[in-house]
Structures are given as structure tokens and as C-alpha cells.
Amino acid sequence: TQIMPIDVEPSATFEADFVPSQIVYFAYRNDKYDIYLYDMLTGVEVPLTDDDSSSSYPMVSPDGTKMLFQSNRDGDFDIYIMDLASREVTQLTDNTVSDRTAAWSPDGQWIVYSSDTRGDGNHDIYRIPAIGGEPELIFSNGQRNGHPRISPDGRSMVFTSGDSNNASSWEIIRMDLSTGETLQLTANDTRDASPSFTPDGQRIIYNPYGDGLSAIATIDLNGSESPQILYDGEGYEWGMNYSADGKWLIFNSEIEDVSYIFVMRADGTGVRKIEGIDGFYPSWVQRR
């Protein structure tokens, strides 16, 4: 399917109905990745992690009080939870393989994540109680499965799936969590990645790739319609997250080796770069 880009120029100021918030993101500084908290109102950035390890892929809980992230502080990547008020960190997974790209269930009770279970680069998808417990395997097909995200009603999950040695084979898959039935939503010879549900649960937002860059697009739940491009800027866009009210998207775009953070309306208009910071995978600190 050919995707036609929409040319959207970044606006000079935030829209009048935009409410500035705190955000978290990770950035590469001092030869490693760390997670930072930034206040849009004050312009103050504070490090949330600062040790000898690399920490990345933060995601704030639905109630806005905790943050998931992955870190290799014990030798391999595991999933951790930080209390944003106390900064206390709890290790959620503990094994000898890499656990990555964790996400909350809408009610905040469960965590889904991908795990290199066999150590061969192919990842399975697990879920684990947010309070800790035994991980439960929910999807495995011998390929690289990653970036799981649960629908607003908690009934479905989307993720990427493909050959671990060939990113152009990665496609978007939707899975019914009660039956285990899966449906492939994309089918092409380019990489499709980073899927999640729109706030109303009626579409999937994701990153289609082409010509070395990526865009932000949505597709219907059955993959039967042509994808719709929301934003296709000059860089490599990814790391999208919706605001609590569903009206805004925050994302990063890598332009000439710098990853800038942008905000735009959920319909792809009103695009604005947040000046003075750079980073990846921004997440709002808001109660949903």
C-alpha cells in the first residue's frame, strides 16, 4: 500500500487549549542512556536515573504515579518500576536474558513486555502483575516479537513481529487476549514498528518506514484500509504517546543525529518542537 505524506509545518507556539505537563524520556549522555523528567512550565530537567548502567524506554502508569523502564543494572536488561514521588525503584523481572519495551495495562494492574527467552534474539511476549509475581507467556512464534501494547478495553494487544535479522520483515499484529487469535494488520517489504492503540481503541498508531526514514500513521483494526499518515517530517519519527485526555501526541524525531521531542494534536496538526531538550520515547506524567 502506498502511503502519501501530509506536509505539516511545526507551529510557532502551543495551541491555546494545550496544558503543559511534565514528561519523561531517555537520552544518550555521558556514554550511556539515562531517563530524565522535564517540566514544560518551568523548563527544568531532572535526571531520574544516574548510575553506571543504561536505563531507557520509560512509560508512566495510568494513574501518573509510577514509571516502567528497562535497565541493565544487574548485567542484562530487566524491567523496573520507579515511584515518581519517592524515586524508589523495584525490580520486576529478574533473569539472565533481556526483557524490554514494557507497557502498562489500562487499569495499571498488569505489565506486558518482550523477552529474549532463549537468548537467540527472538523475543516472546509475557505479562506479569504490576505488584510482582510469576511471568506468564502470552505469545511466542519463534520470531522477534516486541513493543506490546494493550487496548483501552483490555481485550486486545498489538505488537511487532518478524525476523530478528531482517527488520524489513517486521509487521504489526493484533491479538485477542481471551482467545489468543492473531491478525496481521500490515503486509509489505518495509519495517512497521512501535504500534499502540488510539485512545478510543478504534485504530492502531504505528511507524511505517521507507527510504531510511519513518512516519507516524494509523491503520484500522483489521488492516483492511489504507494507512493514514498523521505526520511525516524531515526526520525519523517514533516513540509516540497520547496525553491523558487523548487530544495530544508527543513523539521524538531524529534529525541530523539529534532526537528532538515534538507535540502535536491527535489529528496530526499543530506540530511544535519542545525547545531546549532532546531525547527518545517521551511519556506524559498525567493521571488517566
Structural overview:
The protein is mainly β and 288 residues long. It is 0% helix and 49% strand. The chain contains no helices and 25 strands. Strand 5 and strand 6 form a beta hairpin. The radius of gyration is 18 Å and the shape is globular. The model is unreliable at 1-12 (pLDDT under 50).
Kindly list the characteristics that best describe this protein:
mainly beta, 49% strand, 288 residues, globular, 5-stranded antiparallel sheet
Distance between the termini: 35 Å
Corresponding CATH architecture: 6 Propeller
Top CATH class: Mainly Beta
Q: Regions with pLDDT < 50 over 5+ consecutive residues?
A: 1-12
| CATH superfamily grouping | TolB, C-terminal domain
Instruction: Please give the largest β-sheet.
Output: 5 strands, antiparallel
Order of helices and strands: EEEEEEEEEEEEEEEEEEEEEEEEE
Q: Strand pairing plus helix content: what structural class? A: mainly beta
- Overall average pLDDT: 92
How many strand segments?
25
